[in-house]
Amino acid sequence: MKKVMLIGYGAMAQAVIERLPANVAIGWIVARESHHQAILARFHGEVTPLVDPLACDATPDLVLECASQQAVAQYGEAVLKRGWHLAVISTGALADSELEQRLLNAGGKLTLLAGAVAGIDGLSAAKEGGLQRVTYQSRKSPASWRGSVCRAVD
Q: Could you give all domains of the chain from N- to C-terminal order, each with its CATH number?
């Protein structure tokens, strides 16, 4: 059985958890300490909540970032330097070319997953088929903006 570590416990992580194949188990979830009791209760103590991926004393088969661009910047390089496989959903983080270079040079294996990018590609294809209007709705916890540059915007 493959064991994965999730970084994040918000909406993206919940969608991943609901869709995991039977041969994949979550071993660790990196989340705010305020989520740890909920994680322990939901998974009956079989998943270890962490505040930092480097607190993990084993080697996950995959570390899946399901949190934010900030989480990629905060944890990505250290995860890769451990030689781990990091899959990134928040690919917009790589718009920061310095971060992109640090991740590419850190070691490990980096996989960029199609998230919103696939959505945009899909919309472009649907437009060719006659799509004329789209309504996009998104939800994000206010806490997820903590520490980001968005906090400085009035």
A: 2-152 (3.40.50.720)
